[in-house]
Amino acid sequence: MPMMPRIRSVKPEIFMHEGLFELAKNYQWPVQFVFIGLFTCCDRAGRFCWHPRHLKTCILPYHDVDMSEVLEVFVAQGFIKKYEHQGEWYGCIPSWSKHQIIKNEAESILPPIDDPNWVKPEPTKTHSECFDAKSDDPFLQPFLAMPPPEIENKKTIKNNNLQTSGSPAPRAGVRGSRGTCGREGKGEEGRGEEGKGSKGEEQPLVVPEARPPFAADPVSLIFNHWQTVMKHPHAKLDRDRQSLIKRALKWRYSVEQLCTAIIGCSITPHNRGDNDRGERFDGLHIILKNAEQIERFIRHYKNPPQPKSDATRRTNANIQALHEWGQEKLAEEIRNGIR
Whose CA is closest to 22, among 229, 325, 317? Predict the structure, then answer.
């Protein structure tokens, strides 16, 4: 049963969140916009029903984006959690209680993530956040009969040029629940006013050429994440890389932890080329070499190492030059029979 969207408050800090910024940069999605949109689809406990098509209708009705893919990336990065209860899938925002204080709403009727024995309470009239697509509510009837929105001209940016194609974008929405996101409920900010809101103009859609396709299995998800973060769009998921990822998963590391280690490697100066050779060391065989290496890069994600200063580089270069000079002198003395 999908959630009725609500009015929620947003803290200014979310626009300065580096993790969301990195996701937006790597995947070319409106990540911050989607994450804030999820707030409106959560109940007072930060839980929501895992219905990607319905969530897309309420959050990104005019964007040509696979909401299932966006949600799985959020899960891999730890921004949300996905869980199952009695055959139904749900999601929650782990940090919800730190950023949201909801008043004047009924208690959640969605199952918590850590209580398998939870029994669903009977919904009451105060549970306006849940609705049935076949509802007889006169407010919903006009929306249920509305066709899904279409994009007449899907715009893309390719090679820094705005292009327009005549083919419409895929339809967004769930049959029987289209348009229901237009109704606002009671939240901490109060009741929204119906009928108000500017008519949004169609925005250019940035379609990245190198973004890997969505993958449902953990091995492909981790590989695609590495491929995107390290900017290796032509890399192949061969047998060796599959074995490396499967071995790391057998060590009881989660998908989230392995993806975190990949980011940790990408922000480590030595591995990104700040070394004597000037080479990048960002292969999966390096990141997933052993448990110690994985945990090292996870620590680097939390506490990024500082790059070497110019003075340190000069000192290291002098030491290297002195070492090479000593080796040459030693070889020369050996050739001349001095030693």
Answer: 229
